[in-house]
Amino acid sequence: MTGFFLHRFDHYLLFILLSLGGGLLVGLINLPDEWYQSLAKPWFTPPERLFGPVWTVLYILVGIAGARSYARSPRSPVMTAWIAQLVLNFAWSPAFFGLRSPGLGLMVIIPLLLTILAFIGLSWKRDRLSSALFVPYGLWVAYAAALNGAIVFMN
Predict the structure, then answer these.
(1) What is the DSSP letter of 32?
(2) Is 67 helix (H, G, I), strand (E, B) or coil?
(3) Phi, psi dihedral angles at 75 (to 5 degrees)
(4) Which of 39, 71, 82, 126 has its CA 20 to 30 A from that of 48?
C-alpha cells in the first residue's frame, strides 16, 4: 500500500511540477513589456499582480487533473486532451508577448479553450473531480480569450 501511495504521489508531483514549472518558465521568458503596456486594453483588464497567483493555483489544479487522468488511463483521449491543452497553454505567451502578436495569441487561445472544454467533457464520466478541477481553468481561459479578442479589436 505504501508503494502505491508513493507511486501516485510521484505522479502528482511530476504533473504539478510540469504544469507549474513549465508555466512559470514560459511566463518568465515572455513577460509583458512596454509594448504590452502601450496597447489599448478593455475596461475589464485585470491588474497585472493578479496573474501570478491565479496561474499558480490553476497550474496546480491542471497538474492534479493530469496526474489523476494519467493514473486512470495513460493512453486515452483524456490524456491526449490534457497534453494538447498544456502545449497550447505554453504556446500562448510566446505568440502574444514574445512575437507581440495579439492576433496570433487569439489563434492559439481559442483552440486552447476548446481543448480545455474537450478535457472537461471527456473526463466527466470517468473522473468528475478531474473534470471539475478544469472548470476554473476553463473560465479563466474564456475570460483571457475575451480579453485577447478585445485587444485585437482595439488595436
Answers:
(1) -
(2) helix
(3) -120, 80
(4) 82
DSSP string, 86-148: HHHHHHHHIIIIITT-HHHHHHHHHHHHHHHHHHHHHHTTT-HHHHHHHHHHHHHHHHHHHHH
pLDDT digits (tens, 9 = 90+) for 7-66: 577 889 999 999 999 999 999 999 999 999 999 999 999 998 999 999 999 999 999 999
* Domains of the chain as residue ranges with CATH: 2-154 (1.20.1260.100)
Task: Fill in the amino acid letter for 153.
Answer: F
Q: Is 14 helix (H, G, I), strand (E, B) or coil?
A: helix
Give me the mean pLDDT over the 115-137 stretch. 97
Cell triple for residue 80?
491526449
Give CA–CA dist 149/155, Å, rounded. Answer: 10
In 3-state terms, what secondary structure has residue 6? helix
